[in-house]
Design a protein that fits this description.
This protein is mainly alpha-helical. It has helices at residues 3-15, 42-65, 69-74, 80-105, 124-137. Helix content is 56%, strand content 0%. Helix 2 (42-65) packs antiparallel against helix 4 (80-105) and helix 2 packs antiparallel against helix 5.
Length: 147
């Protein structure tokens, strides 16, 4: 496992953001790939980004599936907020698909998503608070307060 992959796993586990069931999604990667472990290839970087997108995609999809517009409105979030979250979720899913397609196009192995166990998220306010932490951990993400 590469240093960057270890750092990602350590960051997630140590902050309690996620506990991947399959701890090392790269275990299915072909032996010997990449051939030079001192440098990162385009495929390494794309798989790293894909892993981050998998985490964000899973978080938003699961959060939206387990909540409703009504919960967000009752928590004081304005009417379009829930719709905006569904758009953020769709964007995460689209980025996952684009990265997977790109990796296939260049003939590289594609990292599979893990199964993530999130801390108990009760209510819209807790969901938004955790989403802000995830957006801060992965800076290219969209904070729900930016929606």
């Amino acid at each position: 496992m590469k240093v960057s992959q270890c750092l990602l796993v350590l960051a997630l586990v140590s902050t309690g953001l996620a506990a991947p069931t399959a701890m090392f999604p790269w275990s299915g990667v072909q032996k010997g790939w990449p051939s030079n472990t001192n440098t990162m290839s385009d495929a390494d970087i794309l798989n790293y980004l894909l892993t981050i997108e998998h985490i964000q995609d899973a978080f938003y999809r699961q959060g939206i599936q387990n909540s409703s517009r009504y919960e967000f409105e009752n928590a004081g979030f304005p009417d379009p907020f829930f719709n905006n979250l569904t758009e953020v979720s769709a964007g995460e899913s689209a980025r996952v698909q684009k990265l997977q397609d790109t990796l296939v196009d260049i003939g590289a192995p594609v990292s599979a998503a893990c199964t993530y166990t999130w801390p108990s998220i009760e209510g819209a306010t807790a969901f938004v608070a955790l989403a802000d932490i995830i957006a801060g951990t992965f800076p290219h993400g969209v904070s729900p307060h930016q929606t």
